[in-house]
Amino acid sequence: MPVYRDEAVVLRTHKLGEADRIVTMLTRAHGKVRAVAKGVRRTGSKFGARLEPFMVADVQLYEGRNLDIITQAESLGSYGALITADYGSYTAASVMVETADKLTESEGSLQQYLLLVGALRSLSRQEHGSHLTLNSYLLRAVSMAGWAPSFQDCARCGAVGEHSAMVVQLGGIVCDSCAAPGSPRLDAATIGLLSALLTGDWEHASASPERTQSQAAGVVAAYTQWHLGRGLRSLEHVVR
């Protein structure tokens, strides 16, 4: 059977039988892969800890009839223990891998892989607030998937100017002419923070007041879930 190697970040795992586990991974070159890791739930397993959620590993697999089989795993990023030690980081990472799982259902993406690995690395190092890292990741992930939001010009007609109506169904901020009656309005601080999260302006994002960060988080959650076409179950546990 054909054997191949790839870098992979573990999205989720499921028990299989008494000692095995099905591991769902987003790989660098082969997209999303579901594979069986045999014997990893045994105490003496050589690579069980390397195949936990949020871990990044160099894996060797061979193609099976229904599921591929993992034969080797070498750690590239041991982020799991550091992330799970902090509840805020853990809940943020859970939303990230759930989002990546949904965005890559049909095919993988090198950009999505690199974005997820970078976000998990940042969480493990606590480089920024976990909620800021999460919201930046979500905006960038949906943008890479083809749903880039507009936080400046009107998302519907392209009118230039300072607009304040937010309509997630139309792609972001819209002008008064395109906004439906009753559309929610965002203040300039929240719009500025959303732009900073999308572009990676961490100095601006970190300096934003808590109220502004909370409002931006609500917008990001609504925007992401609308374009995914489904809710994110892990989002309800995120620390705000």
TrEMBL record:
**InterPro entries referenced in this protein's UniProt entry, alphabetically:** ARFGAP/RecO, DNA_rep/recomb_RecO_N, NA-bd_OB-fold, RecO, RecO_C
> Is rRNA processing one of the keywords UniProt gives this record?
no
Domain DNA replication/recombination mediator RecO N-terminal spans what residues?
Answer: 1-79
Q: Name one GO cellular component term.
A: bacterial nucleoid
Could you give a single Gene Ontology term from the biological process aspect? Answer: DNA recombination
Instruction: Give the record's family classification.
Output: Belongs to the RecO family.
The identity of this protein, by name, is DNA repair protein RecO
**Organism (species):** Cryobacterium glaciale
Q: Which gene encodes it?
A: recO
